[in-house]
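Table S2 (text version). Query chain:
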Amino acid sequence: MNLDAVLSALHEEPLRGAFAPFWDAAQAVFPDHRPAFLQPDTLRDAWQYGSFNEAFPAAVTALADRIAGDPALLRLAWYVHWRVFAGPRESLQWEWPELRASLGDDAGLFYLTAALAFIPAVRAYHATLPLPEQVTRDTCRQVACYAANYRRGNPGRLGLYRGQIGWLATYLAPNLFFRIGRFEFWRMPYAGDYRVYRRQGSGETVVLAADNVRFTAAGDRCFAPAQPEPPGSWLSSFAETAETVTGNPVSPFGKALPRRVCLLHHEWRCVLKKGDIVLDLHIPSGGDMTPEACQSSFQEALALFGQRFPDPAPRAIVCTSWMFSEQLEDCLPPEANLVRLLRELYLVPVPATPNEGLWFVFLQSPFDAATAPRDTRLQRAILDYLGTGRSWHNGGMILLPEEVATFGAHPYRTAWPQLLTGL
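Corresponding C-alpha cell output:
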C-alpha cells in the first residue's frame, strides 16, 4: 500500500505532509514476514525488562495481532518503528495520527505497542558503549513512565500519548542520553543565552545575559511572540575586551537586572558559554524529588560521564522546564521538595509562550485553566496562582559541578546579596 492508500484507509489524510519525506524509504525495507517488534515473545520480553508495575497484558499481543492482520495498520506500525528506532536521526517527527477513527479507545495502545521496541533498541545501543546494566534498565523505564502518564490522563486504560513516541528516538545513537537515578542526562553543547563567571579563589558565581535579549520590566524573558513589546521591557547588552566583560547580571532567583556590571578577567573566569559541553537534564514522571534523590542523581551522572565520556568534561547541568520557573515558589510552601530543589540551583529566565510546559502537570492539550483537573496539590496550587490573572512561564536552571557536593547549602542565593553589592 502506498502512503495515500494507508492514510485513506485510516482516515488520516491531513497528515500526508508529515509522512511523505520518509515514507518511501521506510517501506523499501518493509519485511516479508511479521516484523520482530510485533512478535509476542519480543513484546513480552520488552515489557518485563521495562519495569512496568503490572503483569504483561494480553491486550498488547491482541492489538499486535490486529495490526499484523490489517495492511494499513501494519504499514503504519512499520513506519513508526523505522522512523523512531531504525531510520536516520535527521529530525524528530512530532505529527502522528490520532487513530480514533480506526482504533477507537485502542489508539493509545497502538503507540504503546510500537514503543516497546524502544527497550531492545536501547539495550543493543548501550551494549556497544558499554554502560552499567542499571543505567540501561533505568533508561528503558521511560516507556513505563509514558504509559503512567497515559493512564493518569485516561484512567484504567493502557496506552501512550502519540505526541511522546517521537521523543524516544533521542535516546539512541549517536546521542549520549541516559537515565541515572532520578533524572535523565543528555550530553550536548550548551545552547543557552547566558555566560557564567566564577570569581577566582572565593568561587562566587554570577550569570550574565547575552547581547540584545529582551526582558520584561520584572526581569523575565518576554513571551514569544510578543508584538508590541510589553511596557517597561528592555534589551540586554554584552561586551568583552581583553581586560573586562560587561553585561546585565541575572540573579539566582531567575530574574535579569537592567543594571550593568563590569567583571575583570583576572578576577572572574568564564566557566560556561554557548557551545560548551553540558548535561542537559530531563525529568521523567514519578515522585521521589527529595533533595537527597536529586543530589544522588547529579553525583552519579557526573561520575559516570566523567569515567566513560571524559573529554571534554561537562561544564554544568542545565535544564529548561515548567518545573524551574521561579513562580513555583509563589505557589508551593517552602518545605515542598520542588521549592527546596529550586533553592540549590541558579535559575535563569528562558524564552517561552504563555502557559508552556503545563501539559506535563495537567495532561491537557490545549491547556484550559477553566477545565484543567484539580486532583493534586500541585495542580490546585498552579491553578490558584493562574486564577489571579497571571500566565505561567518556563524557567531555566544551571548547576555547576562544584556545587553538587554541597547540595543543601543553596550557595548561589546565599552569596548573592553581598555579591551584587560589590559588583
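Notes on Table S2: The chain has a mean pLDDT of 95. The CA atoms of residues 6 and 72 lie 5 Å apart.
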